Amino acid sequence: MQNSILVSFNDSVSSRAALNFLGRLALCREDCRITLLHIFIRSSASEELMGKKFTEQEPARLMTVLEEAKKKLVEFGFNSKNVEIEMAMGPHATVSEGIIDHCRRQRYDVVVIGRKRMSRAEEFVLGDVSVKLLRVLEGVPILVVKTD
Amino acid sequence: MEGRIITDTTDFFSIDHGDTIQIGEKSYRVTGHERELRFGMEEPKFWVKKAVDIDTGEKKIIKLSFLETFETHFGNAKVTCFRNPEKEAKVLELVDGHPYFMQGEAFKDKKGNIIRILDIVHGRNFLQYMHYLDVDYNVFFSKLLPDILKKIVKAFEAIRFLHHREFRHGDIRNDHLIVEKDTGNYVWIDFDYDYQTRENPFGLDVFGMGNILINAVGKGFHTIEVIRNDPVTYGNVQRDLNREDFSILDRVRFINLRKLFPEIPKPLNDILMHFSIGSNVYYESAEEIIEDLNRCLYTVY
What we know:
Structural class of chain A: alpha/beta
Shape of chain B: elongated
Oligomer: heterodimer
Helix content of chain B: 25-40%
Order of helices and strands of chain A: EHEHEHEHHE
Distance between the termini of chain B: 61 Å
Shape of chain A: globular
Number of helices of chain B: 8
C-alpha cells in the first residue's frame, strides 16, 4: 500500500530542510507517493499595486524551484513517477488556508512542512503556518521540521 | 497674492494656503495643512490639506495622492507597510453611510491622482479622551468603563465589517478613533495605510485593537518608567512586575493591569493578556476579540 505524503514547499531554507529530512527518513521509497505543493496566496490591492511585475514572474520562478526539489527527491531514491508537483493558484488568503483546503479535497497520510525559528513577536504579527495547521487540520498527522 | 487654480495635484508640496483645488465642477479653497504629532512635535502632512468647499462653505479635509512604502519593526518582526490611496477610496465607498467610519468621496484629478474629499469628524481622539477623564480609577471603573467598553465593541464590529470584506483598516491607533461630539460614537478615521503580514492578514489591526482596549481598561497607558518613578500612584506594584506582564510588541508597556487595579475582573484582564509577552495564544481576528469582550460584558456588567 502506498503512503501519500504532502510536502508544503516554497523557496525557503526551512522548506529545503524539510525536504532533506524527508530524504533521510527510513521509508520504503518505492511505496511513497509525494506531492510537492506550493500555495499562491491572494494579493491585497496594495501588494498588487506595489509588486505587479514581481507577482507576474512568480509562477515561472516557483515552477523551477519545485522541479529542483523533485530532482532532489529522486536523488534520495524516490521514484520520479511518484513525485508530483502542484501549484495551487486558488483564491487563498493564507498558505495554511490553502493547505487545509487541499487536504480536504485529497487524502494524505502525512503533511510535511518546514518551520523557521520565530520570535513571539514575529509569530504574533506575521503568523505561523505550522501552528495554524496543528490547530485546524484534522485527521492528518503533521510533521514540522524546525530550522534556525 | 491671489491663489492658483489647481487641477493637477501631483506636486502636493507646492499646494498651499489660498490655492483652489478644482475637481470637476467642485472647488475647494485650501486653508492649511493637517498636522500629526510625532515624537512630541507637530509635523505638517503636506499631502493632507484643510479646505473649504467654495459652494457650501463647509470645512473639508482633502487627502492627495502620496505613495510611500517602508519597513517598520514591531519587536523584531519586520513588516512592509504601504500608503495606498486607492484602498482608502474603496473603503470610503464601502462604508458610505456607516456611522462608525469617517465619510467622504474619492475623485481623480486630471493626471489620475486619487483625491479624497473627507468630512471632518468632530471630537477628541480616543487617546485624548481617556487622558482628560478626571476621575479616580474606582469611579471610572464602575461608572464609565462599562459604557466605554460597549462603544468599543461597536467600533470593533466596524473593523470586523472591513475584515469580512477583506480590507484592513491598516493603521489602528488610539488617535485614529474619534469620540464623535454629537453622537458619542467611536468613529474610525484614516485608512490609507496597508501592510503585508501574509499568514496573519489582520495581525496589525488586531494589535491596534488590543492597544485601544489597554488604553481604555487602564484609563491610559502605564509604562515601566512611570510605574517605577511614581510610587505615590503605583505603590509597591513595581516589586511585583514580571517580564510576562508587558506588551509582546512594546516591552515597556504594562499589560497585566489587574496588578495595578484589582477591581478589573479576571476575564477582562485575560483578554488584555493575549497581547502580553507571557501569552502563548494570540488573537487573529476581530471576531475573536469581540466574542471574548461580549462574553465579559455579559457576565461582569
